[in-house]
Structure formats: C-alpha cells, structure tokens
Amino acid sequence: MQRENLIIIGSGPAGLTAALYAGRAQLQPLVITGNQIGGQIAITSEVENYPGFPEGTTGPELVEMMQKHAENFGARYVYDEVQEINLTNGSPFYVKTYGDEYEADALIITAGASPRRLGIPGEDAFIGRGVSYCATSDGFFFRGKDVVVVGGGDSALEEGLFLTKFADTVRIIHRRDELRAGPTLQRRAFANEKISFIWDTVVTEIEGNGLVQTVKTMDVNSGAENVLTADGVFIYIGHYPNSKFLEGQLVMDEHGYVITDDFMRTSVSGVFAAGEIQDPYYRQIATSVGQGCAAAMQAEKWLSAREEEDQPAEVAA
Ligand code: NAP
Questions:
Q1: Res 43: pLDDT
Q2: Residues with CB under 6 A from ligand 1
Q3: Is the domain of 223 the same as that of 244?
Q4: 89-97, long-range: CB within 8 Å, 24+ apart, which pairs?
Q5: Within-domain flag for 288
Q6: How far does the centroid of ligand 1 lie from the alpha carbon of residue 153, in Å?
Q7: Which of 203, 235, 267 is where one domain is finished?
Q8: 84 and 169, same structural domain?
C-alpha cells in the first residue's frame, strides 16, 4: 500500500490546477489521471474563451502546458483509473486503482463528467464506425463526407463548426426550434455555408452496413419520420458526472453531482472536490481552474491544521 499526502483523482483543468497549487505548497501531490489526461479538454478542438490566449488555443495544447506546469512544481502522475474508494473511516483514505492501492491523508476529487448518450438503437454498435462524441479526434476521418450533429448547446455548435473543416455538409439536428448555445457561436454557425439546421427533430435510430449510412429522425411536433443519409453522427447532448465510484461515500445530488460548500469541502472532512464532478452550472475551463485552485488551497490548510491537531471543521472558518 502506497502512502500519499494528497491524491488528486482526475486530470482535467480542475485536477491539473489543484496539482499546480498543491505542488507549489510542497505537498508533492499524486494525480491519478483517469483514462485520459486532460479530461474533456483533451478532446476539445478549439478553446477561445480561456483568458490569456487572444488567438485561442486547442484543448490538447492547454492540457500539455497545464500538465508540465504542475509537474515543474513537483506533481506526479499515475496513468490509471480509480476502481474503488473507501472514505468511511476518515483519513487516511483508501484508494484502489487497476494497478495499485493507496492511502491518502487528503483527497481532491476532480473526476469530471462524460458525454451523455442518446440511448437509441444503433448508437453503441456504430461507435467508432461513424458515431462519435469527439470531433477533435474523429473529424479528420470525415473529409468530404456528410455528417449530422445532435444537440443545440455550445458543444454542438462549436464542434459542428470544427467539422466544417473536413465535412462537405454538417446538419445540426436539434429537438427544439431555439438553440441553447451562446450568441457568438450561433452567429458563426448561421453564417457558415456548410451548416444547416433541422429543428424540432430527434434522432431515433442509427443504421448502416458496417459504417453509418443513415439516421432515422422524428419531428417532435407532427411525429413525422424521415431518413437522412449521413456518414457520421456526432452527439453533443450534455454530460453526466463521473461519480459512480463515490456512491455511498459522499453526499451527492439526485443527478450524481458531488455536493461541496464554498470551500470545496465535501461531506467527508479531508475530501475536497472541484470541477465538473461538483459543478453542473458553469462547466467552463476557467471556472474549473478556479475551483481546482480553491480546493488545493483548502486541502493544504486542512493538512496543516491536522498536523497541528486542529479540528478540520475550523479550517475554513
Ligand atoms: P448543454 O448546454 O447541456 O446542451 C445540450 C444540448 O443537447 C441542448 O441543446 C439539449 O436540448 C440537447 N439535448 C439534451 N438531451 C437530449 C436528447 N436526449 N436528445 C436530443 N437533444 C438533447 O451541453 P453542452 O453543449 O455540452 O455544454 C455544456 C456546458 O459547457 C455548457 O455550460 C456550455 O456553455 C459549456 N460549453 C461552453 C463552450 C464555450 O463557451 N465555447 C463550449 C462547449 C461547452 P435543449 O436545449 O432542448 O435542452
């Protein structure tokens, strides 16, 4: 069993920022990265709203810089996933990954969120054969093809715009007649000649022969069904928190988001959470970075107070 001062579970912007701050506080944090370092931004094509990058940057570039930055201050990375955690006896907390077992004096949970699935016939069967949740990774394969994007939020439009670099046509299928996405993305999408919109429509089935060929759709008002030819189906209908491994260990809301207070404290003293695992509202790189920073500062205070045998409850007061 490996004993650690501070383990950070997850390596998105919240986790990497927590690692940077904890590293600078001499805590030598261990980051258990999850199945992809960087989390969701690792698969985000363009990042245009993170301060300090007036020309924009890409998700993978930002991840690399954040990772190096934290590493320069002593953060260590384990490329593994947490399978089990036990918080019931308090600190030290038990953490089991596929490769190892750990005890940690304090924990910061930044396991993030994952793309939601439509749950329709053909979706699972065609993942990697035309169905994708990541235009950054898969867009290249759709050069000269026709694709559909499902969703009406920022992700659908941003990734739809990215796909126009490769695909001939991008049809965005949205279940309402009004987009959820912000005005800037809306303006850019409406101005792009390759993009068209199919309103008040849901996708009910994905079909093909080895690779995606068609999608079945239904007009939500009339119930009318239609079949569209498509080589690719990119699905952007929101996210769910990656909190299954925390069930029964921490207080969560009805959607599985970890509840934290203003000091990023969870229901267990010594366990902090930051980023999309506890934030269903803002979900921005900038907000996750801020939350990761706050969690690391609180974890550092908690660990110092504990060393001095103070009560954890008084830490943030
Ligand atoms: P989102 O804002 O939750 O949008 C999800 C979209 O999918 C909505 O339009 C929703 O329709 C639709 N949808 C949900 N369930 C569906 C279903 N079963 N069938 C069909 N459509 C369905 O998710 P997101 O676009 O991933 O964005 C998540 C957060 O990240 C947001 O806060 C967003 O602002 C942020 N974000 C920001 C940027 C940026 O600023 N550049 C980029 C990406 C994401 P309804 O509209 O009818 O609910």
A1: 76
A2: 49, 118, 150-156, 158, 175-176, 180, 202, 236-238, 283
A3: no
A4: 90/268, 90/269, 90/270, 91/269, 91/270, 91/306, 92/3, 93/7, 93/270, 93/271, 95/7, 95/9, 95/32, 97/32
A5: yes
A6: 4
A7: 235
A8: no
Q: What is the CATH number of the domain that holds 156?
A: 3.50.50.60
Q: pTM of the predicted model, to two decimals?
A: 0.80
The per-residue pLDDT for range 111-144, each reduced to its tens digit, is: 999 999 999 999 999 988 999 988 877 888 899 9
Residue 231 shares a structural domain with residue 245: no
Structural domain count, the chain:
2
Range of the domain at 62: 2-114+239-310
Please tell me whether residues 209 and 160 are part of one structural domain: yes
- Looking at 235, 258, 279, the residue that finishes a domain is 235
**CB distance 258 to 87 below 8 Å:** no
Site to probe by mutation for ligand 1, drawn from 49, 157, 176, 180 as the one with most ligand atoms within 8 Å of Cβ, is: 180
Looking at the domain assignment, is residue 85 inside a domain? yes
Residue 121 lies in a domain: no
| Residues 162, 257: Cα–Cα separation, whole Å | 30
On whether both 283 and 222 belong to a single domain, the answer is: no
Distance from residue 270's CA to the centre of ligand 1 (Å):
33
CA 126 vs CA 9, 206, 299, 300: distances in Å: 31, 8, 43, 46
**Of the candidate ranges 126-130, 208-212, 245-249, the one whose mean pLDDT is the lowest:** 126-130
- Cα 236 to averaged position of ligand 1 atoms, centre (Å): 7
> Which residue carries 């079909």 as its tokens?
207
